[in-house]
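QA checklist item 7 of 12: single-chain prediction sanity check.
[x] sequence parsed
[x] length recorded as 163
[x] structure emitted
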Amino acid sequence: MSNLELREFHSFLEGVIEDSSREKRFSIEKVVATVLSRHAGRLDKIKDEVMVLGLRALIRNNCRAKVITAHDGPDLFGNYGVGKRVSVRYLDENGKTRWDKKLRSELSFDDLDGIIARLDGGPPKQSRDRKDYDDIARRAAPYRGVAETIGEALEMAERDELP
């Protein structure tokens, strides 16, 4: 579908929306019914493109709607409150502290040590995050010299069935 055809259909659709909202409150269902019943010929011309756009919208909305409850089983990190992306501190070329987000499976042992050290400087009451990171460190510790990342170490621990 060319840009001209798309603009033309968009203008047509705006007109239908304006006409249907003049009479009463705006209703998407009324607009869809009007397009399907009165303008089926125009819709047939661009049916495939409309289906592709609709499918893309459904997929995007489905991806946005996913929440943690959709996946109720543990992953390599167990049932921790640790997010999928973790803020990691690093020093830039000027020696200034900067922050970066890393996937938790790509954390290095140095990153994990830095997070735990940062949490040690926090309040005296041990937070749930701190407990989660301590547990991850405990499970990954036997593989510190073998694995490059925490994700790899936890895979090895799971394979070896360590608690």
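[x] summary fact logged: Residues 67-72 have pLDDT under 50 and may be disordered.
[ ] second reviewer sign-off
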